[in-house]
Amino acid sequence: MARGANQKLKLLYLYKILNEQTDENVTLNAAELIEELSKYGVSAERKSIYDDIEALRLFGLDVNISSDHGRGYYVGERLFQLSEIKMLVDIIQAAKFISENKSVDLIEKISTLVPVTDRKALKRQIVIANRLKSVNETVYYSIDNLYRAIEEKKQVRFRYYTWDVRKNKLYKNKGQFYYVNPISLMWADEKYYLVAYDDLAAKIKHYRVDKMESVEVCDEYISRSVRSMKFNAADYAKRSFNMFGGEVREVTLRGNSESIGIIYDRFGRDVFVVQRDNDTFSVTVKVAISPQFYSWIFGLSDLLTIEGPSDIVDAYCQMCRKAENNCKTAKK
To answer: How far apart are CA 107 and CA 61, in angstroms?
Structure first.
């Protein structure tokens, strides 16, 4: 039997066929596998198929035999199950920092990890049109550069922008580059953020990756003080409401029993809660004081209130009065 040009790739093509075309409900017997291999210009005999299947098993592929389908072969356990791939598709679709085009490309790639028969279910699940998505197509490359800078402990530079009412870019820092010491990349509020130490401001700041442009890894290493800095990403996210920065303060909150779950969800279950009576409790937590923190309290005003310190209580009350005045003005 003449050996085709792809004969040396026989085992790889067999691996591909089994992975893409079989599952617990769809199997291929030896004759069908021989036919599928012939489509790739690969010839095979029944005995060689048995030997190749055994080789794939030794390699780690979970090839099983189903007696219900005429002794057909199928791949059982996979690196990713369909339910896991569906979850990843949902995450990609929801991620605002990934553009619509990049989302489609990425979903197409991960869909190859499930059998062809399951890809139809994924396509029915894919709904990206009209979702709020980034228009920054360079986000992938920015993230790659940022991870490399963190790994190599080097500074990064970038331009940072926002938008005006005419949808034009407005560059911060007069269009000049920011130079910062990268610490970590974080996912919060459905967005990707770079957490970094700003030497000029002498404090930690965060930047939305989808609003960063021309991200480059510098030759300069991050400062020694930043290298020795202990940074807890989970703690940083807990106290930064909607990733708007502010002075970190200890704040005592008072709530009723219905709101304890909200406290645990926001600050974790390791916070120290003081039971005031059967229906109320108080808890002291560290938060970044910002309008977003006050808005969070306002939205939960039936369940939570700020008990102290007094200057934070006053600032919150002042914000509430300002909102009330704005309502009165709007009615005129």
So the answer is: 24
